[in-house]
Amino acid sequence: MPHYLIVLLIAFIALKASAEDYPDVRVATLQHGTVNWEMDVIRHHHLDEKNNFTLAVMPVGGKDSSAVALQSKAVDLMFSDWIWVNRQRFNNRMFGFSPVSAAAGGLYAQPDSAVRSLSDLYSQRVGIAGGSVDKSWLLLQAYSKQHLGRDLKELIEPVFAAPPLLNKLMYDGKLALSLNFWHYSAKLKARGFKPIITVDEIIKGLGVDTQVPLVGWVFSEEWRKANQQLLGQFLIASQQARHILLTSDEEWQRIRPLMRVESDEVFLALKQSYREGVLRQFGLSELNALDSLYSIMAKEGGAALTGGAEQLDRTLFWLPDQNEGVIQLEAGGAK
Predict the structure, then answer these.
(1) Which member of 24, 95, 301, 319 has the lowest number of beta carbons within 10 Å of its beta carbon?
(2) Angle at CA of residue 33, ends 279 and 192, nearest 5°
(3) SS3 labels along the chain
């Protein structure tokens, strides 16, 4: 065998051995969930190996399944919201949260609907994803009270259902309006349904002017303490994957089969909505904004939402850091 081939073979074997020695980071993801796009980008570009870990994805059937997997230590991280983490910490189940996305949906009406604003919603059947304590639904109720002086629950007939079913009911003309998650709202927009108000507009209407996270990576404090650097490496890889999706149209073409889109219009709407929702920064001003937002949601949702936690635990937020792995953002600043 030529000398240069022997050298290449040795280098390949050494690289393969070193990759196999990387620690696993086990992540629960919903089957066909949008976070799988990011996971695929990490794998395709070997961002896990470049950050000295091996990504291991565990598909689960739903949000509750993700929580069970995390609590039973079957996985190291899941993608969820900070309100769940706050509720757990109030009950001495210590989890942490690293913010990722402000992506949110909106209220959409049938294309030919006469509805122009919330004031036109009287007696309408409105589909709502996520149940009676869904964050967007609570915020919309608070917005209605503040801007219309009316309790939205007295004006409309809420129809609570799973996100895919709500879109089907909208497509079939069996619902007048729906308040759905961001990727389902993007599909409605692409098919010509009429936007009435977005969750981002609702939040701004409630006095919160900065972009705030709604979902991100959740992990146990026990695992974080034992894997401070590893957690940081994963979060950095996650950031790098989002940067690729923010800047590369070619990457979106590559992952298009994962998106299971039926048209170019839906594909472009999903890409645009994803990019608009990526969190650009998270510091004390965003933390203060979340504090205000939590007070509003807690007032609307009560114990069914908060589990009794009337205040936001400001110590639950963690950010990646090149030196320390992760740093904690507190009322007094990052440390």
Answers:
(1) 24
(2) 80
(3) CCHHHHHHHHHHHHHHHHHHCCCEEEEEEECCCCHHHHHHHHHHCCHHHHCCCEEEEEEECCHHHHHHHHHCCCCCEEEEEHHHHHHHHHCCCCEEEEEEECCCCEEEECCCCCCCCHHHCCCCEEEECCCCCCHHHHHHHHHHHHHCCCCHHHHCEEEECCHHHHHHHHHCCCCCEEEECHHHHHHHHHCCCEEEEEHHHHHHHCCCCCCCCCEEEEEEHHHHHHCHHHHHHHHHHHHHHHHHHHHCHHHHHHHHHHHCCCCHHHHHHHHHHHHHHECCCCCHHHHHHHHHHHHHHHHHHHHHHHCCCCCCCCCCEEEEECCCEEEEEECCEEC
Residues 139 and 206: beta-carbon distance below 8 Å: yes
Whole-angstrom distance, CA of residue 14 vs CA of residue 35: 32
231-266 residue pLDDT tens? 999 999 999 999 999 999 999 999 999 999 989 999
Tokens 């114990």 belong to which residue? 303
The Cα 24–Cα 10 span in angstroms is: 24
Q: Which two tokens stand for residue 73?
A: 């230590």
From CA 117, how far away is CA 120, in angstroms rounded? 6
Q: Cα angle at 29 between 180 and 297, to 5 degrees?
A: 40
Tens digits of residue pLDDT in 30-53: 988 999 999 999 999 999 999 999
* Dihedral of alpha carbons 199, 311, 238, 208, sign: positive
> CB of 275 within 8 A of CB of 188?
no
Please state the pTM of the whole predicted model: 0.90
Tokens, residue 201: 């507009």
Distance CA 62, CA 241 (A): 23
Are 127 and 180 in contact by the 8 Å Cβ rule? The answer is: yes
Cα torsion 117, 122, 126, 128: sign? positive
Instruction: Retrieve residue 112's tokens.
Output: 């030919």
Question: Bridge partners of 179?
Answer: 107, 128
Question: What pairs with residue 157 in β-bridges?
Answer: 125
